[in-house]
Design goal:
mainly alpha
């Protein structure tokens, strides 16, 4: 699996900005309430957004693009099978002997 950049410069800058904002907010809350796990989770999410902005690679975007490619391949394969079989509307109905 190749990790080519899949987000643009503006998107990366927005991710870094929001990531640092979330990271700063969650660490300031974590100082007052260290027992809250939700602030720790928010800090991890903010740090992940900063990292995505720096390397310009988002695994969720890559997953969505891969899924769309698989759906298109599936539709193309099913269309080609239908064209090869020559299925018309009457023969596609299930057989019911009763």
């Amino acid at each position: 699996m190749s990790m080519k950049p899949n987000i643009g410069i503006i998107n990366a800058l927005i991710r870094i900005t929001f990531g640092l904002t979330i990271l700063a907010w969650s660490t300031s809350k974590l100082v007052k309430h260290p027992w809250r796990d939700s602030y720790l989770f928010a800090a991890f999410c903010g740090a992940m957004k900063v990292a995505e902005g720096i390397v310009r690679y988002c695994p969720v975007t890559a997953l969505c693009e891969r899924w769309q490619e698989m759906v298109q391949e599936h539709h193309q394969a099913s269309d080609s099978i239908d064209a090869m079989e020559g299925i018309d509307d009457d023969s596609a109905l299930p057989y019911n002997p009763s």
